Amino acid sequence: MASVNKVILIGNCGRDPEMRYLPSGQAVANISIATSTRRKDKTSGEMIEDTQWHRVTFYDRLAEIAGEYVKKGRPVYVEGRLKYGKYTGQDGIEKNTVDIIATELQLLGGREGGGGGGGDDEGAPRRAPAAAPRAAAPAPRAPARQADPADLDDDIPF
Question: Could you say which residues of the chain have pLDDT below 70?
């Protein structure tokens, strides 16, 4: 049976990347990402914000990119997998760890210091902006096609 170990995070970087290189020359970058949820307290009615911190590790070229472009406070999108571990602290107590081994990184928000991405300053590569809407009237829409019940497959995969 197949299995899935996938994590998707969208949050803010809590510190500048910590870069290092393994003896093999492999680049490694570590960051922490904060994700927050808000909820309303049922008794007091006030909004409560809960922030979770996630340790993320990048390897190879992705580590070099993270080290160059990710900065403290920058919003990021990260995909990866969970990795559990244990270590013994200086106090002799065994502690558990959860790390995210990143496989994808997307920088979010505008360029640093660019006020929304309009400047010519150095920064991460960005997708080209969408084309401006045309002044001409939109083309008429084709009528929606209804699904033919004979085309539907009765085999349900779950």
Answer: 111-158
Tell me the residue type at 49: E
Count CB atoms within 10 A of the CB of residue 54.
19
Q: What's 151's DSSP letter? A: G
CA distances from 47 to 39, 66, 109, 115 (A): 6, 33, 25, 30
Q: Are 45 and 11 in contact (CB under 8 A)?
A: no
Q: What is the pTM of this model?
A: 0.64
> Residue 91 and residue 103: Cα distance in Å, rounded?
34
Q: Which residue has the tokens 């660019």?
A: 114
CATH class of the domain defined by 7-112? mainly beta
